[in-house]
Amino acid sequence: MPAARAHGREAAEEAAPPRALGRTLGIFAAVAAAPEGLPLAELSAALGSPKSSLLALLRPLAAEGFLLHAAGCYRLGPEAFRLAAAMLAARRLPEQLRAAMEWLAERSGETVILTSIDREAGLVVYAECIDSRQPVRYVVPPGSTRPLYCSAAGRLLLAFQDEAFREHYLETTPLRPLTPLTVTDRAALRGILERTRRDGISVTVGETVRGAAGCAAPVFDADGGVSRALLLGAPADRFEHEMPRLAALLREAAARASERGAGPPATLVPHRRKPASQAKGARAS
Q1: Plot region of 141 (φ>0 → left; ψ -120 to 50 → alpha; else → beta)
Q2: CB-side exposure of 113: number of CA atoms within 13 Å?
Q3: Using an 8 Å Cβ cutoff, are 172 and 202 in contact?
Q4: I want to staple 258 with a disulfide (CB 3.0 to 4.6 A). Which of 31, 68, 114, 220 is the partner?
């Protein structure tokens, strides 16, 4: 084989892996921008890549759960969301956010979860978790996802998005019952979201997982927006017995976690009780 031809083949082989990697990243970017999914033909056109070449990449991605292939379309799969959440969690949490989570975990005795919204997928992502030390507790792996419409953190985050996004979500998302207690009536859900935004707290009991309860409060960004929420997860019976105390702790922790100078409108600021040292008959601890 002539030296020039051999050199050209070696160069092509060396260029192949980077090209395949670029196509893989392009697949994720294209599919993430289309929550309803993309057929192979549209992926091929969007990436300018032959269908045969794309199939060689799509099949293993679907087999490993990074993509879902149904009804002729490709969508992001659970492994893609877990990877994204793990990458986000790898970033160092702001000191005040980490401190607020640890404070809440210590005082509540329940599992504390930092959640974020994935607007494209219409999901809430459980990004960072501090598990309860109690023998019976609520545990969820980091990177797990839940629908926005039926989970405490999902509803909280949905309630604080812009109206156009909320309405589009409510009008286009199938509201499937995950348990017999899941609210699937759109009018009822709109009322729940309105109260959630007004009160600054979201509570669900047994709507996503039987026997489990959650309570969520917003973590405000510096601009007043809400893309993250703190979630307390607990067994339903213990949560219902302790709900007033847990909700008060959660509100305090979410206020501590929010960016300094940011916060809810005045109507959402919770009433603060007097410190224990000022309460009648209180003893110093």
Answers
A1: beta
A2: 30
A3: no
A4: 220
Q: Comparing C-alpha atoms, which of 115, 201, 206 is closest to residue 159?
A: 201
Residue written as token pair 């980077």? 18
CB contact set of 266 (below 8 Å; sequence gap of 6+): none
Block residue for tokens 């989970």 = 151
Asked if residue 40 lies in contact with residue 28, where contact means CB atoms within 8 angstroms, the answer is: no
Residues 6+ apart with CB under 8 A from 257: 96, 97, 100, 101, 219, 230
Given pLDDT bands bounded at 50, 70 and 90, which one contains residue 18?
low
- Backbone phi and psi for residue 173, each to the nearest 5 degrees, phi listed first: -90, 125
Cross-strand partners of 67: 76
Is 174 buried (19+), middle (13-18) or exposed (0-12) by CB count in 10 A?
exposed
Sign of CA dihedral 263, 266, 271, 272: positive
Q: Are 145 and 76 in contact (CB under 8 A)?
A: no
In the three-class reduction of DSSP (H, G, I as helix; E, B as strand; rest coil), residue 111 is classed as strand
Give the pair of three-digit tokens for residue 277: 């040292």
How would you classify residue 261: left for phi > 0, otherwise alpha for psi between -120 and 50, otherwise beta?
A: left
pLDDT digits (tens, 9 = 90+) for 90-112: 555 678 888 999 999 999 999 99
**1 Cβ partners below 8 Å, 6+ apart?**
none
> Residue 89: pLDDT band by 50, 70, 90 thresholds?
low
- Span 226-248, average pLDDT: 95
Measure Cα distances from 285 to 124, 275, 276, 282 in Å. 38, 12, 9, 9
Backbone angles phi, psi at 170, to 5 degrees: -65, -35
Q: Do 140 and 126 form a contact (C-beta atoms < 8 A)?
A: yes
| 218: confidence class by pLDDT, cuts 50, 70, 90 | very high
